[in-house]
């Protein structure tokens, strides 16, 4: 999030980030420090809800007061949805918001979070990307909740699970083998039913999670420091009792220390393990304890139902879907980056910000098709005199340059306009790099981008902006300003171009 108090830190960090090697599957969302992922799969997309480590002082203390959400359909490109919940603004009674878990039910989304380690709250939203607001006037679980307390109990790290029979459960607790708990949730999801039940969990430290596969309930958790902060697991045929220790689900991730926290989810028939480590901070040479980042790995179940311990890797995942360059793509959806940040966009959602000379984003697996793209449209704002967007394939510095797009000042960081430029035709599937060059001041912010098929503009050399480059459009609203007409015209061009192609193709058929 754009925040003037953290700007010097962001810029300082960016100077290191420029030299970071690319890592595909850790870190995810390397422009932010995020931790304690809780996953939700909804309508073909996985959402990871995270403690916002950028809230914490670099030097010490978990002082997170907001939850950030990132999501992906393809598991390579992640969309930054920004802060979707902040305390005390969205829950006046709370001081902290740690380690969230989210579930969908009854057309609503329910977010459970730790108020530090002293209780669990619940917030609701009509959208998976918030905003979430408190559903109750205080904690849902606290030391007075029957069965919840225990010696040196940490009342935090909720995991929410909805069983096939419609009964929902909340798992939580920490700091001792006798301190894991499960409690039934009522169908309103904001109140509990009966007392919390104790589970006996060997070397239990924190980070409860529950997933179910083939009728087996898997309870996974972080072991204590003496046992290496691994993710171990138990299984049972019941969600509340009879759990038996089964071993290691995931060893301590590389580049990690102090704690471990994970989530397990299934997407498109495969299982995944999301976690945090300290890779970004380690590479940047800053204090790592309170600056964590996300990672993701495949999780395999053996034939007998046991788990194959995770093998951590930096680029082990397969991209599930290609990116369609001919539809609107949010600028804040990318695979990797160097030096940029994200902030709220007055047109809705988020934008890429802090774009300076030499920074870039990578969008993985863009499918330009066999006909290819011929024009690039980008929604931009700039309070300075703008800069250049280089469009490169497959490598940010040595990859083929397919276009160079000049962006002029628009008069403000939230004064959005659409700039279009012709490109040399790009075909096939490529990683797309948007590399930014220009003067020493911040160059521009980006809201979205979209290519037109090559048939709508022809294969021409890169040129200066053809539309609205210097004319700030009115801002406000997700379709405000001069963009709709451009997108509309572009879409018409694309459709008519495709029609011509289809006609030509049909004519050539025997
Ligand atoms: O992020 C604060 C705490 O650290 C979480 O609640 C724990 O799971 C550990 O990751």
Instruction: Please give the CATH architecture of the largest domain.
Output: 5 Propeller
State the end-to-end distance: 57 Å
* Poorly predicted runs of 5 or more residues: 1-24, 457-510
Q: Kindly report the CATH topology of the largest domain.
A: Tachylectin-2, Chain A
- The global form is globular
**CATH class descriptor name of the largest domain:** Mainly Beta
Q: Which band does the percent of strand residues land in?
A: 35-45%
| Helical percentage | under 10%
Question: Which structural class best describes the helix and strand composition?
Answer: mainly beta
Number of helices: 3
Number of strands: 32
How many strands, what sense, and barrel or not for the largest sheet?
Answer: 6 strands, antiparallel
Mean pLDDT, to the nearest integer, reads: 87
Tell me the radius of gyration: 24 Å
Number of domains: 2
Set out the fold topology.
Elements: H1 7-17, E1 34-42, E2 45-52, E3 66-72, E4 78-86, E5 98-105, E6 108-114, E7 120-125, E8 133-134, E9 159-162, E10 168-173, E11 180-185, E12 192-199, E13 204-213, E14 216-223, E15 231-236, E16 244-250, E17 262-267, E18 270-277, H2 279-284, E19 293-301, E20 307-308, E21 329-330, E22 333-334, E23 336-338, E24 341-344, E25 350-355, E26 360-367, E27 373-382, E28 387-393, E29 401-407, E30 412-426, E31 429-437, E32 444-453, H3 483-508
Folded structure, characterized:
The chain has helices at residues 7-17, 279-284, 483-508, and strands at residues 34-42, 45-52, 66-72, 78-86, 98-105, 108-114, 120-125, 133-134, 159-162, 168-173, 180-185, 192-199, 204-213, 216-223, 231-236, 244-250, 262-267, 270-277, 293-301, 307-308, 329-330, 333-334, 336-338, 341-344, 350-355, 360-367, 373-382, 387-393, 401-407, 412-426, 429-437, 444-453. With 510 residues, the chain is mainly beta. The chain folds into two domains: 25-299, 5 Propeller (Tachylectin-2, Chain A); 329-453, Galactose-binding domain-like (Jelly Rolls, Sandwich), CATH 2.60.120.260. The strands form seven sheets. Strands 21, 24, 25, 27, 30 and 32 form a six-stranded antiparallel sheet that branches. Strands 1-2-3-4-22 form a five-stranded antiparallel sheet, with no helix packed on it. Strands 23-26-31-28-29 form a five-stranded antiparallel sheet, with no helix packed on it. The protein is globular and about 65 Å long. Residues 35-36, 51, 62, 98-99, 114, 156-157, 206-207, 259, 261 line the site of beta-L-arabinofuranose.
């Amino acid at each position: 999030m754009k925040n003037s108090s953290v700007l010097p830190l962001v810029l300082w960090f960016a100077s290191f980030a420029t030299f970071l090697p690319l890592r595909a599957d850790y870190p995810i969302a390397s422009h932010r420090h995020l931790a304690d992922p809780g996953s939700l799969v909804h309508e073909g997309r996985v959402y990871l809800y995270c403690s916002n480590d950028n809230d914490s002082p670099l030097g010490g203390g978990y002082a997170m007061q907001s939850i950030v959400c990132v999501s992906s359909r393809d598991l390579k490109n992640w969309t930054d949805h920004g802060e979707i919940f902040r305390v005390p603004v969205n829950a006046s009674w709370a001081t902290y918001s740690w380690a969230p878990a989210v579930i969908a039910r009854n057309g609503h989304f329910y977010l459970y979070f730790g108020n530090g380690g002293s209780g669990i709250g619940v917030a609701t939203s009509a959208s998976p990307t918030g905003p979430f607001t408190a559903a109750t006037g205080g904690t849902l679980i606290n030391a007075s909740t029957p069965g919840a307390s225990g010696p040196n109990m940490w009342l935090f790290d909720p995991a929410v699970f909805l069983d096939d029979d419609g009964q929902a459960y909340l798992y939580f607790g920490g700091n001792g083998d006798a301190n894991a708990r499960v409690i039934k949730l009522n169908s309103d999801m904001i109140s509990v039913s009966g007392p919390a039940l104790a589970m006996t969990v060997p070397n239990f430290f924190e980070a409860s999670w529950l997933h179910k596969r083939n009728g087996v309930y898997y309870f996974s958790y972080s072991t204590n420091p003496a046992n290496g902060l691994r993710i171990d697991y138990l299984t049972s045929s019941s969600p509340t009792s009879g759990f038996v220790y089964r071993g290691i689900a995931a060893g301590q991730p590389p580049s990690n220390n102090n704690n471990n926290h994970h989530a397990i989810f299934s997407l498109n028939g495969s299982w995944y393990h999301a976690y945090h480590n300290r890779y970004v901070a380690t590479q940047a040479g800053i204090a790592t304890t309170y600056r964590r980042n996300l990672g993701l790995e495949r999780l395999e179940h053996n034939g007998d139902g046991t788990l194959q311990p995770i093998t951590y890797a930096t680029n082990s995942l397969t991209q599930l879907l290609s990116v369609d360059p001919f539809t609107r793509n949010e600028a804040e959806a990318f695979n990797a980056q160097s030096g940029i940040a994200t902030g709220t966009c007055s047109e809705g959602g988020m934008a890429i910000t802090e774009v300076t000379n030499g920074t870039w984003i990578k969008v993985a697996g863009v499918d330009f098709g066999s006909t290819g793209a011929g024009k690039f449209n980008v929604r931009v704002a700039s309070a300075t005199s703008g800069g250049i967007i280089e469009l490169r394939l497959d490598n940010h510095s040595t990859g083929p340059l397919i276009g160079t797009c000049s962006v002029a000042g628009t008069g403000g960081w939230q004064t959005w306009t659409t700039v279009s430029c012709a490109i040399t035709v790009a075909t096939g599937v490529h990683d797309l790099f948007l590399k930014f060059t220009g003067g020493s001041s911040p160059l521009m912010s980006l809201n979205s981008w979209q290519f037109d098929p090559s048939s709508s503009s022809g294969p021409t050399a890169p040129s200066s902006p053809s539309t609205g480059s210097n004319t700030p459009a009115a801002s406000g609203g997700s379709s405000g300003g001069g963009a709709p007409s451009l997108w509309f015209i572009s879409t018409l061009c694309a459709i008519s171009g495709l029609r011509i192609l289809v006609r030509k193709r049909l004519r050539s058929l025997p």
